[in-house]
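Our consortium's second objective concerns turning raw sequence data into structural hypotheses that experimental partners can test. To show how far this objective has progressed, the report includes one record in full. It was chosen at random from the queue rather than selected for favorable results. The single chain below, 143 residues long, was entered without modification.
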Amino acid sequence: MELILVTGLSGAGKSRVIDALEDIGFFCVDNMPPKLMITFAQLLLNSKEKREKVAIVTDIRVGGSFSELFNALVELKNMGCNPKLLFIDAADNVLIRRYKETRRKHPLLEKYNGSIVEALEAERAILEPAKSIADYVIDSSYM
């Protein structure tokens, strides 16, 4: 089974990536906590209906359990899934503009008293360990 784990900054384009992966035949799941990935992969591997290509999005929306991503990667590798980690990034000024254009709220905005700059800074700090081990990093700033 080909397994791609998609993560990255809020507003960077993870949903667009998942849409594109779905268009080329991937079975896609959005917003899955890392702790559930092992069980999900086991279900897929044991299912009579085989899924050859699977993509899972996880990010800061899952809360504190995001840090379990690293354990999940190890477990998935031990299961023979050979997951690839895809990190979607974008420049802060681009993310700020995207949030203004869409009028969506950043997931950490309330925690940082409405400061999008502080919310992005915090999100980058939380996600940096994942970015540092990613198999692929895409900067969507000019997309």
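The partners drew two points from this record. The first helix runs from residue 14 to 23. The CA atoms of residues 108 and 119 lie 5 Å apart. Both points have been shared with the crystallography group to help prioritize constructs.
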